[in-house]
Amino acid sequence: MACQHSLSVSHFSNLFRKSTGMPPIDYFIHLKMQRACQLLYTNGVKIKAVAVDVGYDDPYYFSRIFKKYIALHLNNIG
Fold it and tell me: In whole angstroms, how large is the CA radius of gyration of the chain?
C-alpha cells in the first residue's frame, strides 16, 4: 500500500497509525477478528471453519489471537 501512494513503508505506517490509532498489521488483524465474530455469532459455524475463513490454518493459534484482540473466550460463544 505504501508503494501505491509513493510513500516509504515507515512513513506510511506512521500516517496509518496516526489515522487509525494502530499499526497496519494490527488493524488488519482487528478486521479479521471482527469478521470472525460475525461468523461465530450469526452463522453458528465451527471455530475451525471460522479460523480457515479468516486466514488461519491452525484453530488453536486462531483462538489465542481471537482472545487477545477481542478479549472473549471462545468457550463462551455458542
Answer: 15
Measured CA to CA, the distance from residue 42 to residue 4 in angstroms comes to 36
Q: Rounded to an integer, what distance in angstroms lies between the CA atom of residue 31 and that of residue 69?
A: 10
Grid cell in block for residue 20: 487509525
Assess whether pLDDT exceeds 70 at residue 74.
Answer: no
Taking only the tens place, the pLDDT of each residue in 29-56 is 989 998 998 998 887 789 999 999 999 9
pTM for the full model?
A: 0.74
Three-class SS state of 7: coil
Q: How buried is 21 (Cβ within 10 angstroms: 0-12 exposed, 13-18 middle, 19+ buried)?
A: exposed
**51 is written with which cell numbers?**
479460523
